Amino acid sequence: MAKTMQPQELIDSAVVDPDGNKLGKVGTVYLADATHQPEWITVKTGLFGTKESFVPLSGAHTDRDGVHVRVDKDSVSDAPRIDADGHLSPEESAQLYRHYGLPVPRTSPDGRMPAGRTGETGKTGERDRAGDRRQAKGESGMDDKGSMTRSEERLNVGTEQVETGHVRLRKYVVTEEQQVTVPVRHEEVRIEREPITEADGEAEIGEAEQDVVLHAEKPVVRKETVPVERARLRTESVTEEQTVSGKVRKEQFEVTDDEGKRRR
Question: Which tens digit of pLDDT belongs to each residue from 221-238?
Answer without folding.
Answer: 999 999 999 999 999 988
